[in-house]
Amino acid sequence: MSFFQVRAVAICLVINTIDGFDILVIAFLAPEIAQQWRLSPETLGILLSAGLAGMTAGSLLLSPLADRYGRRPAILLSLAVTSLGMVASAFTTDLAQLTAARFITGLGIGTMIASLTTIVAEYASDRRRAVAIGFSMAGYPIGAIFGGFVTLYLLEAFDWQAVFLFGGLLTGLMIPLSLVFLPESIEYLLTRREKDTLDRINRVLAKMKRPRLERLPDIYTASATAANRVAELLTPAFRRQTVLVWAAFFLTLSSLYFAQTWTPKIIVDAGFDVSDGVSIGVLIQVGALIGVLVIGLLTARLSITTTAALLMGLGFAAMAAFSLTLGQIGTLSALAVCIGLGVNAAVIALYALVADVYPVNIRSTAIGWAIGIGRFSAVLSPAIAGFVLEFGMEVATLFLMFALPMLLAAGLVLAIRPKH
Fold first, then answer.
1. Could you say which of 1.20.1250.20, 3.30.1360.180, 2.60.40.1510, 3.40.630.10 is the CATH number of the domain covering 3-184+223-413?
2. What's the predicted TM-score (pTM) here?
3. pLDDT tens digits, residue range 115-126?
C-alpha cells in the first residue's frame, strides 16, 4: 500500500476516533446528568437510546446517498451534522432538548460510518483489507477511552456541558482536514461515466504510484437509485447472506450497546464512585482496542467468519461472568477488558465480513443497512434495560439476558459464506 492509501485509512481512523468520543460520551456523563436532573432509570434509558436512534436513521435513510453522490461528500456532510448535534447538546436546558440533540448527533455518525468503512475497504489491498478495516475501526474504542479521560478531567473543572462542547469543536475541525486529505473512493469513481472520470481516476492512480489507465474498464455497473440498491441486497444472489448479516448485527449490537451505555451507571449504583464507573467503561474500550490486534492475528490463520464467531463466544462468556461478580471491582475490571475484546471486536469483525460479501456498487448501502438493522436493537437495548431495572429485575439477570444474543450471533456468522 502506498503512502496515499495509508493516509486515507489513517484519516478514517481519526474520524472514527472522534465519532467514538461523540456517541459514547453520554454513557460517561449519564451518572452526572441523572443526578442533576433526577432522572429515573427508565427515562435515562430513553436518553441513552436517543443517539443510537439517530445512528439507525442515518444508516438506513442517508448512507445510501454515498453510493449515489460519493463517499467524500457524504462524510463531509455527516461531520457537519455531528458537530452541530454535539454543540447543541452543550446548550440544552431540559431532557427533551438533550434527547433531540443526541438524535441529531447520532444521525450524522450513522450516515458516516458506512462511508468510512467503504473507503477503507476500497483503498486497502486485498491482502490487508480485514486488518485495515480493523485498524480504522479501532478509532471507535480509542475515542471512547479518550472520552473517559476527558470527561473526568473536564468534570473536575467545569460542568458536563463542557464535554459536549469540546466534542463538537473537535468534530468541526475534521471538516477542513477531510476536505484537504480525504480522497474519494477510486472504485466509486469507476462506477461513474462522466467526461472527467478517467482523468480523476488517473490522478488518484498517480498518487498511489499505479500505472495510468488508457480507458475506463467495463466491469462495474451502478444501480440507478437508492431503492434499487437496497432491493439488490435481497435478490437471490445476496438474500441468504443479507438475512444472516442483518441478524448477526442485530444480536451483536444489542449486547454491545447495553454493555457500553449501562455498565458505568450500574457500577455507580452498586456502591462504587463515579470514577470507578467511568474506569470500567474505559476498560471495555481498552479490550476493544486489544481486539483489533487480535483480529489481525486471527485472520492471518482463520477466516473472518471463524474469527467473528470466536470473539462472540468470548463476549458471551465475559458478560455472563460479569453478572456474577458485581461486588469485586478488581475482577470486574478484568472482565470489562474481556467484554470489550469479545463484544466490541466482534462488531469490528462484522464490518470486515460485510465488505467481503458485497460488490462495490452496493457496498455502502449494504454496510449502512446492516448497521441500521443492527441499531434497531441498539436503540431498544438501553431503553429495555432501563425499563426492566425500573420494575426490579436483578442486575445479574440483566447482564445474563444481554449475553445470550452473542451466543446466537456466533452460530449465524458461521453460516455466512462470503462470495465477493
1. 1.20.1250.20
2. 0.70
3. 887 788 778 877
